[in-house]
Write a structure and sequence with these properties.
CATH architecture of chain B: Up-down Bundle
Helix content of chain B: 55-70%
Order of helices and strands of chain B: HHHHHHHHHHHHHHHHH
Strand content of chain A: under 5%
CATH class of chain B: Mainly Alpha
CATH architecture of chain A: Up-down Bundle
CATH topology of chain A: Four Helix Bundle (Hemerythrin (Met), subunit A)
Number of strands of chain B: 0
Number of domains of chain A: 1
CATH superfamily of chain A: Cytochrome c oxidase, subunit III, four-helix bundle
Largest interface: A-C, 53 and 52 residues
Order of helices and strands of chain A: HHHHHHHH
Structural class of chain B: mainly alpha
Structural class of chain A: mainly alpha
Radius of gyration of chain A: 22 Å
Largest sheet of chain A: none
Oligomer: heterotrimer
Number of domains of chain B: 1
Number of helices of chain A: 8
Number of strands of chain A: 0
CATH superfamily of chain B: Cytochrome c oxidase-like, subunit I domain
Distance between the termini of chain B: 49 Å
Radius of gyration of chain B: 23 Å
Chains: A mainly alpha, B mainly alpha, C mainly alpha
Chain lengths: 212, 550, 107
């Protein structure tokens, strides 16, 4: 009888401990699709308002600093690269190098947020914020542009913060050897999330900064 | 995936209710990751929400008994139809069948021991409860009950002083719960099918859940962001939809219906899946046209994305798009028709057992066909303009939603009750309740078609005296319907207390859940099964075939 | 870049089985991405009129394809992932187009 119980328990554990890397990757991808459509709704709004107010969008875009936007693009692309390099390093069993790469990613993410802070701060300083004095004097199309600008870059910034937390969590697990050279799916999932945030910025940059 | 609820003595013989777990009492439920317990938890909460919203509905009908004020003020009436809609749609109809029966039976029907992400599954339940709690809480918070209607149309939802932000946030949280459930189910279906369970050997209920899950994953985020925008617009005055700032309120309607129309198929597809389970079981025949039914689920999911504009025919969208959306709307009727004809063909020459679940399924086909056909009246541009925003629309969507999903929810409870609880209910009482529900339903909603066609607008507190006779009949219908529902619930509860013990396969079903004990053990199967035939090959038929071949 | 392509076609196993990890390819992709960023900024300075948006979107799409295929490893991934991504993008594009059937003829 007790033998019977033991096998059952072992079976229980085997089933619940069993690892399915591809399954968890699939789950992550499905989650990314929800993010794509979350931003998708906003991109539809952007497309609509840009179609309705083409000139106002050009005028409003002049308020943004292409240089800052460009720098932030480079920063995010670099942070994406270091995540991938981190995965490669972990796969090769080089834990220390992996963590160094991920630290660079975290650093880049924070710099991106600081830049955003200064960009938003400058707009606020000039009175360009919802119900702000400068914005109220602008045309309807410009109001829509800045409404979308704040919502889209704000939501994107929020995703950067979430991504940083995810990467931080994964780094902690790598440190404690929970994630290793033959068990790195969670790092890969964190990477997938980070790359998606990067891709969204790849579209936000030309759509908001580069209209002439 | 260490499972916190499994302790040393969990053998396969004990059913999942009585298995010893690390936690005791209520905690054993609240911290469980067992898909069956989570399903039961959804069922109990959903019953509460359903009864709440049903009460609101009955009160509204009572108010409409006479013109002018009967029992409540106009403002209260506005809040009641909003809350009736919000609770019924977001807390009962949308999550209903997938969350309860999908959770309980999806892993068993594909021969798995649990879903792919059991802890995420529990998180979905908590989000559901938090969302539901917020929706109820918004009743008591400052600013008064929401009065926008469940659609939260701007600009009114941005300007009204009632508690819109909280209700909208509740819907957002519920959406998150729905997304996580969908994601979990898709991955489970892809990764955890037992050996031999190919995609085309899956029960049709699983196909419908699969299609539904895709809609949940790919449509819900759109409403999520739309609702967030309402909150931002209310809180910070960010210009997105507000026409005074240059926004376009029709874009809100686009985004809202880009989710909410596919959501109609989140509601109805799982119900169709359940019908495809019940009919072959009680007709004692393999389903007619398995592959077309399976594919039509996916087709409905896809076409469901293309037709949202028909909710906006009279709101000022361009004529070109109205024609296109009208055309696309008619296409949806095709896959739905495929299903109905296949069900009927399955019944043909079957040895039909008219049990309670089967009775509900027949009721569904009758009611849903009326709902579907009146939908075509609404899908055609010219007739739609005549009946837009009248009781005709109210009648139509109650026929497809309540008559579709609601009735099949009742059918599912009756069909799977023996498996879920290990007890039988009183079959005769169940049939009596089903008949009363069927009669009450039609008395309640059919007069709405007539008065809607005559021009009675929906959501109106007051009406002209010539409509009173229809309102009177309808209100009497609501009493019949509610008595039927109460008899049904009482009968099920008494079955739960005093019912005789159910065997593992009381209906002679052929899918995998009928091969395990009732109620199932913690891990469903002693040993993961291997499947070598389709889901509806009845053992009796298989035996006869074998004899013939000899 | 094609050399890594053949190994994972049948990776349906439970444990992730990576393609041969390499630093070099990823760094090359990164350089490509930076160059494309420079191109898109430079092109924005030229007055292309109505073509400007199209060009910007094409460049952004190409960049995303690089990220998806290399950084997100989809190029080496199971077919299911590719089909899933296709379905997701298809739905988005359909929704966008249908919305514009309204906007184009209303404004």
């Amino acid at each position: 009888m007790s033998n019977n119980v033991n096998t059952a328990v072992e079976e229980v554990q085997e089933i619940h401990m069993h690892r399915d890397d591809f399954g968890s990757k699939m789950g992550m991808w499905l989650f990314l699709f929800t993010e794509v459509l979350l931003f998708g709704g906003l991109f539809i709004l952007y497309a609509a308002y840009r179609y309705i107010y083409p000139e106002a969008f050009v005028v409003a875009s002049g308020e943004l600093d292409v240089f800052m936007g460009g720098i932030n693009t480079v920063i995010l692309l670099t942070s994406s690269l270091t995540v991938v390099l981190g995965i490669v390093a972990l796969q090769k069993g080089n834990k220390k190098l992996c963590l160094s790469f991920l630290w660079i990613t975290v650093f880049c993410g924070i710099v991106f947020l600081v830049n955003k802070y200064f960009e938003w701060g400058a707009k606020f300083h000039h009175g360009i914020y919802p119900k702000g004095p400068a914005l109220q004097d602008m045309s309807e199309g410009e109001v829509m542009y800045f409404g979308l600008y704040y919502v889209m870059t704000g939501l994107h910034g929020l995703h950067i913060i979430v991504g940083l937390a995810f990467i931080g969590f994964v780094m902690w697990q790598i440190k404690r050897n929970i994630l290793t050279a033959d068990n790195f799916q969670r790092l890969e999932n964190a990477g997938l999330y980070w790359h998606l945030v990067d891709i969204i910025w790849i579209f936000l940059f030309p759509l908001f900064y580069l209209i002439h | 995936m260490a499972n916190g609820t499994i302790a040393a003595h969990g053998t396969a013989e004990v059913d999942f209710y009585h298995v010893k777990s690390k936690h005791k009492g209520l905690l054993a439920w609240l911290l469980t990751t067992d898909h069956k317990r989570i399903g039961i938890m959804y069922l109990s909460c959903m019953t509460v929400f359903f009864l709440t919203a049903m009460t609101f509905g009955v009160l509204m009908r009572l108010e409409m008994l006479t013109p002018g004020m009967t029992i409540m003020t106009a403002q209260t009436y506005n809040s009641l139809f909003t809350l009736h809609g919000v609770i019924m749609i977001f807390l009962f109809i949308i999550p209903g069948i997938p969350a309860v029966f999908g959770n309980f039976f999806l892993p068993i029907q594909i021969g798995a021991m649990d879903v792919q992400f059991p802890r995420l599954n529990l998180l979905s339940w908590y989000l559901y409860i938090i969302g539901g709690g917020l929706a109820i809480f918004s009743l008591f918070g400052g600013g008064g009950w929401v009065d926008t209607g469940w659609t939260f149309y701007v600009p009114y939802s941005v300007r009204t002083t009632t508690n819109v932000s909280l209700s909208v946030f509740a819907a957002f949280v519920l959406g998150f719960s729905s997304i996580l459930t969908g994601l979990n189910f898709i991955t489970t279906i892809h990764r955890l099918r037992c050996p031999g369970m190919t995609f085309f050997r899956m029960p049709l209920f699983i196909w419908s859940i699969y299609a539904t899950s895709w809609i949940q994953v790919l449509a819900t985020p759109v409403i999520g962001i739309t609702l967030v925008l309402i909150i931002l617009e209310r809180a910070f005055g960010i210009g997105v939809f507000d026409p005074t700032l240059g926004g376009d309120p029709i874009l809100y309607q686009h985004l809202f219906w880009i989710y909410s129309h596919p959501a109609v198929y989140i509601m109805i597809l799982p119900a169709m899946g359940v019908v495809s389970e019940i009919i072959p079981t009680f007709a004692r025949k393999p389903i007619f046209g398995y592959v077309p039914i399976a594919i039509s689920s996916l087709a409905i999911a896809l076409v469901g994305y293309l037709v949202w504009g028909h909710h906006m025919f009279s709101s000022g969208i361009s004529d070109t798009s109205r024609v296109i959306f009208s055309l696309l709307t008619f296409i949806v009727a095709l896959p739905s028709g495929i299903k109905v004809f296949n069900w009927v063909a399955t019944l043909y020459k079957g040895s039909i057992v008219m049990s309670a679940p089967m009775l509900y399924a027949m009721l569904f086909i009758f009611i849903f066909s009326i709902g579907g056909l009146t939908g075509l009246v609404l899908g055609a541009l010219n007739t739609d303009l005549h009946v837009t925003d009248t009781y005709y629309v109210v009648a139509h969507f109650h026929y497809v939603m309540f008559g579709g999903m609601g009735i099949i929810f009742f059918a599912s409870v009756h069909y799977w009750f023996p498996k879920m609880f290990g007890k039988m209910y009183n079959e005769k009482m169940a049939k009596v309740a089903a008949i009363i529900i069927g009669v009450g339903f039609n008395v309640l909603y059919f007069p709405m078609f007539i008065m809607g066609y005559m021009g009675m607008p929906r959501r109106y507190y007051d009406y002209l005296p010539e409509f009173q006779i229809y309102h009177l009949i309808s209100t009497v219908g609501s009493w019949i319907l509610v008595s039927g529902i109460l008899i049904m619930i009482a009968n099920l509860l008494s079955g739960l207390r005093n019912g005789s013990k159910a065997s593992s396969n009381p209906w002679e079903g052929t899918t995998l859940e009928w091969t395990v004990p009732s109620p199932p053990p913690l891990l469903n199967f002693d040993k993961i099964p291997t499947v070598d035939h389709g889901p509806y090959e009845h053992p009796e038929i298989a035996r006869r075939k074998e004899e013939e071949s000899k | 870049m094609d050399t890594n392509n053949h190994h994972d076609e049948h990776n349906d196993g439970h444990i992730a089985e990576a393609h041969h990890p390499s630093y070099g390819v990823n760094i090359l992709v990164w350089i490509g991405l930076l160059s494309l960023t420079a191109v898109t900024v430079a092109v924005a300075g030229i007055n292309l009129g109505s073509l400007a948006l199209t060009v910007a979107l094409i460049i952004a799409t190409v960049k995303s394809l690089f990220v998806v295929n290399f950084f997100m490893h989809v190029k080496f991934d199971n077919k299911v992932v590719k089909i899933f991504i296709g379905v997701c993008m298809l739905i988005f594009v359909i929704v966008l187009i249908l919305t514009f059937f309204d906007l184009t003829f209303r404004f």
